[in-house]
Amino acid sequence: MSITIGAHVDQTDPIAEARARDTTLVQFFLGDPQGYKGPEVRYAGGAAGLRADAEAAGIDLYVHAPYIVNVATTNNRIRIPSRKLLQQHVDAAAEIGAKGLIVHGGHVNKDDDPSVGFDNWRKAVAATDLKLPLLIENTAGGDNAMTRYLERIAGVWSAIEGTDGADLVGFCLDTCHAHAGGNPLETIVEDVLKITGRIDLVHCNDSRDEFDSGADRHANFGAGKIDPDLLAAVVRDAGAPVVCETPGGANEHSADFAWLRERL
What we know:
Layout: E1 5-8, H1 14-20, E2 25-28, H2 46-57, E3 60-64, H3 76-95, E4 100-104, H4 114-127, E5 134-137, H5 150-160, E6 169-174, H6 175-180, H7 188-196, E7 201-203, E8 206-207, E9 218-219, H8 228-238, E10 242-244, H9 250-263
Parallel strand pairs: 1-2, 1-10, 2-3, 3-4, 4-5, 5-6, 6-7, 7-10
Antiparallel strand pairs: 8-9
């Protein structure tokens, strides 16, 4: 089976980054992953140029929303700017012709009922003008996280079901996050598909930490704590495009691609 394997790269020239890795798929940030400033296209040709050049080169672009986006929280000072930032990134990602925008599930505060977070997700989907698939990603840590545990993912999904725009909400499965979050990789694909009906993208990463550690620290393939056969099985079973968010640059990523292909 032919699964496209790409990597998370620097945003200045994603096309050059794709070529350096001999791939047709790259993911990157638009702007500061830790800031509320809003998206910024650093490609020399601007948004329109990036879209045209990527199309001409046959390269699929994915955008990762800033880490600070948390549309689930009950804290207005975070939730409201998060929604605004999410819409800005949806607009910018659509402008460059991205195939999807990846966003973390976020979390609620310690004493909050998780169902409030599920409903805030519903409100965010309803309030956002989705112009491309919004791929919610499972996360590694935190007891109050919306997408660390399967039952929480199910809560988000049942809350947004039937909401205007819900058909454009997909899932991004991160192997390091699943492992560190305490979800067995042996069944994770089947478990997620039962809940969401879809896996649109796989973030294939090894983990520096043990199962259920709650730590989000990626490792290159074979250098972490995840069984190599399990990593390959998740990719095979999910059957979705793959982004490696492993450490290093083009050489390390190319080695990771080769490692994974060999096991597929």
